[in-house]
User: Fold this.
Amino acid sequence: MSADKWSETLTELAEAIRTSEIPGDLGIRQVTLEPMVDSEGEDALWAYIVMDGEAEGEDGWDPMMCHALDMNCDRLAFEHGLDHSVYARYYSPRDWADRDRVEPDYDDDEEGIAFTEHLGRLLSGTEDA
Assistant:
């Protein structure tokens, strides 16, 4: 499959997943697909699915809804001519927006600061090892 056809197919698949009917009253806001290789060495896809609402409770999204949507993603991939399993991860809009935030550096003790400064001087060439 050419790169243009691959891109077009992924775009169409993402839209098909986004407009899927799912159990419950939640909708899908956004779908981002990313190629990957699964644990068995097979070509697969990550589907990052941003739901319209928030997960209820501490247990996250409703397992039956997730299972139905997972099966639907695999079916839609097949219908779009792809022999790829689709592995879905579900996000609320807030979780999706926070996904790229860098975790704070908890190593802010004096030893950690001194090491970071020393490493910076070594890398800049202002200090010998």
In short: The radius of gyration is 21 Å. The chain has a mean pLDDT of 84. The CA atoms of residues 28 and 94 lie 14 Å apart.
